[in-house]
């Protein structure tokens, strides 16, 4: 073998080794992202709000210029921080007439008006072998239509959690309540022994549908529903009356919450808990970070707040509202493939885990995570006091709100009616009137044709 | 002297003559353009929309014309009729309380003592507070658990201790009105102080010499002479009250129930929550007509007074 042959063979080996190494490196791109940066240099525009939320703040940094996502894919994303109150309108206008944005995140209840303007993701999900069973059913359901098309991946989501004062329950030897009936018993016992404290902080004020959260837990828990399969109101049937009466009785009959609860929304009622005036409160799991923040809670409450799944009804598994922000791609986007890479990244369990377990900067620390594998991850739980595991428990049986285009109007009717009942209006009569109003909304919208 | 007087009069007449210089239109053009884009076009556009079916959740573009349907719907819509009533009651409360309190403050501070002059300077501050901040502050101050107003009222009037100011239909509306009166009454007081200063002191002195009491002087002389100012101020406050929105959003969210849903808030609900643009435009135009009536009276009174 001549010398030149050895040189050629050597070169061939170098090429082979380099090639193999390169292929190996490319196939090892994490988070299921495409190898070889096929969308290098693409700039995506993402229509979103609320960058003050810790999870969004962290993810926007990871996907912005110079972030991990750009290093892996060459794609960068610009997060358009729209005020929450203007977001729904902006999405609708953009979805139908604009082409400024590629990616959008929306609140579940707005979805029905938006989905027709988004790309179905089923084929992409299938091609990338994304395990949908790792996401709560309620989240996937909220991002889908009745035909089984999935328009968004869960991106940010919240289960409802029962926060309680561990020290009070231990001192009075009371169990952590599992259902609303036990909540009333425990709250009554607390108020008897500690008259200066309210058993539970509730919120019945009409404010962006917040007073529906615990109402639907009652309603779904007992087996009732808001609308039937034809989208007609059924919340005023016997089950609905019973569930609503129980919800109102917490305030008016059992008096285990502040008399001011009809004027309280989520903010005021959680303040009751922060300031040590209430022993229990039901709210979103991200409040855990606030209960652990010495700047938010008074010293006698700090470190004494425990958490458990939001209460259900009797022995039935709790069926609570799970709020989710799905993330999807506008049909008008010319960068759909790059947008899909972005969606895969931000909804990937490893990215979500990384964000949820990062408590290096408390100002952006956030326990929010959307995958079951993330919620059960030891590191994530260690960083967040174990609340993700409890959230997973709640989300197994959680549900989404009715997926109808008219939800905003229906919600207005429901929240005002609930507030009236909290102030003493007759439950059955009010529910019947609310049902008539909802029926008129559905009829006008053409649901019964 | 007479020549100087004559020439100054002719100069004034000359200045008042309408000029035919075409430059005036060029100079006016920027302002007219701004008004056309920000006022005239949106008004005309919403007027046309008010005769169309347009629900943003179904279509980004307005649908077909439906004639007067949106207007007819308004007058059979319990929510709209309720918001009309709420707005009327709110206007009555906020206008009357602002006027009465403003007049009382003006009478108290009308003498130009050093203390009064200092207090007058402070009067402008409540008016300078942004409505949304007023809403947050008043909501906080009326909280039955830790609100400073709620505690003060409870201390002075024990039966009102722990009263839910924002939990009762009338007191919630009254609370919103008070948050507004808190800002406007001092401003009115300043206007009234100015008007009181223009009342010739000979009139009150003569009445006093004739044996009139302070109360009689107020009713027979001061109040009638203040009437034109009160009228203008009232019109201004009516227009402002019809626009009530910020404190409703912050303090009550339209509740309890729908008892503080003012017209503005209702339009906001229909347009930006329910996204029913056609109907919202119709309701807006009803509001525009009501406000236009008061605005017309206001402008006519102002210009009438000047000429």
TrEMBL record, chain A:
Family annotation (Pfam families): SBP_bac_1
TM region(s), chain numbering: none
Keywords, sorted A to Z: Signal, Transport
UniProt KW Transferase keyword: no
InterPro entries recorded: Bact_solute-bd_prot1, SBP
Superkingdom to which the source organism belongs: Bacteria
Record family assignment: Belongs to the bacterial solute-binding protein 1 family.
Name assigned to this protein: Putative ABC transporter-binding protein
Native source organism of the sequence: Calidithermus roseus
Automatic annotation (TrEMBL), chain B:
Stored Gene3D superfamilies: MetI-like (1.10.3720.10)
Occurrences of domain ABC transmembrane type-1 (ranges): 84-298
Gene of this entry: ycjO_1
Subcellular location field: Cell membrane
Record's keyword annotation contains Transmembrane: yes
Keyword Transmembrane: yes
Family: Belongs to the binding-protein-dependent transport system permease family.
Protein name, as recorded: Inner membrane ABC transporter permease protein YcjO
CDD domains reported in the protein's UniProt record: TM_PBP2
BP-aspect Gene Ontology terms: transmembrane transport
Keywords: Cell membrane, Membrane, Transmembrane, Transmembrane helix, Transport
UniProt membrane topology term: Multi-pass membrane protein
Xref: PROSITE patterns: ABC_TM1
Chief location bin: membrane
Cellular component aspect of the GO annotation: plasma membrane
Domain of life: Bacteria
TM segment ranges: 25-44, 88-110, 117-136, 173-197, 217-236, 279-299
InterPro entries recorded: MetI-like, MetI-like_sf
Pfam families from the UniProt entry: BPD_transp_1
